[in-house]
Amino acid sequence: MDIGPILLSLRLALCTSVILLVVGTPLAAFLAYGRFPGKAVLSSLLTLPIAIPPTVIGFYMLLFLSPYSPVGKFLAETIGLKLIFSFQGLVFASVIYSLPFFLGSVRTAMERVDSTLLEASHTLGKGSFATFMHVSLPLSLPGMFAGFALSFAHTLGEFGVVLMVGGNLPGETRTMSIELYEKVEQSDFASANAYALLLIGVSVASILFVHALERRAKAVL
Amino acid sequence: MIFADVTERLHGTSGPFELSVKLELEERKTYALFGCSGSGKTTFLRILAGLVEPDSGRVEAFGELWHAPARGIRVPSEKRGVGFVFQDYALFPHLTVRGNVAYSCRDHALVDVWIKRTGLSELAGKKPSRLSGGQKQRVALARALASSPRLLLLDEPLSALDSTMRVRLQDVIATYRAETGATIILASHDLPEVFRLADEVLVLEEGKIIRKGTPREVFLPRDVSSKFSVTGQILAIDKAGVLSVAWVGFGGSAAQIVLTDADREYLSVGDDVLVASKAFQAILWQTVRRNS
User: Does ipTM top 0.90?
Assistant: First the structure.
């Protein structure tokens, strides 16, 4: 079994989950606590990747990011960033694709924080940002870890989007799930089985991790 | 001076009603908001704390406008300098007792003072989930006091405590006022607590202040002259032959008082009563009716 696709998948899943943690957490807070017109529309748009088939998302991302599209052309000409058939492109696509899973988990955790605790913080002299940092965020940590674990597992097993945006370049975009497909194409079922079992193992570990966090959160609260 | 002239639509057990309060409170005094559950006490405290925006009206305190929608003014809670003890404690579950008390107070010595005064020294390292209701209530009080508020709002702050701890914390509250000159507004059902802490009582019924004055003026009828008088609550009424006897609780103890037929007709279990006596026979005087 080639270790390259395994390491690439792990790197992709880790990069995607870390980016989601950094970018998705403020976005989740904005959706949980913000009051602004069009909130429902924005929320629906961000959830859309769950409902659309991955190959369709991948196809439109391919068009959107290709060097012939205005966005792809702009990125290539200004900062030399090529998002098609590259690792960076895979990360971008995976972040978009896993965003609803991360947002759902973190937003729910933030909305579950008892509003009286936020009020108590305000009466104790803390403004909205300090209250978020000292109350909402620590109490949402289990939800954030759960979102991280779900995004990680989800990215690790992703096939349609990865194949569309990244193709099948060894060492660059050939992830575990693409390699599994390759092995089946080559009738190498033993290797395909090994990759499949590894993916199942990581998924089960992620779910167990999420449940352990939920149990811990219930014990603390 | 604290001035409030506010209205807010509320929903009670017997349907919607309007909280409509207009009053002026003097600084450095303790006021008790007295009334049944659902009379609007908590909402009024929340309006003063800036946690509820009233439908209309104006709130002014310590020479500052806190709420004046006509002038676009709404001072947020964190800028009002209020301390609020919530009925359900609202302790931060991820912080220890010490962490809760120190939440808004960087002065470690002051945190220690309030932990000690509220009898929490032994529990300082525990999380709220490991505490009893009474212990949580003490943490909530210590946390509010450690933030050194100029206006302390207490929503049934001592209801979960036994009588000894209740008296101890009443002393803590009274000492805080004496030391800092803070203004205190206390929502309470508990007559002895009101008598012990409040300079003035505001009786709230269905959103309106129906009586105000000192606790004596509000609760003790002027036409009862007596050698002694004490407030209590009817715990039980027993029939003993031709007589009816009321068990009246005062703090941690109880006494039996013989009722006349006339008393028996309008008194019932749960009523708050004034027990007064001239020389021999104690009489009961209903101060708060619990059952209609």
Answer: no
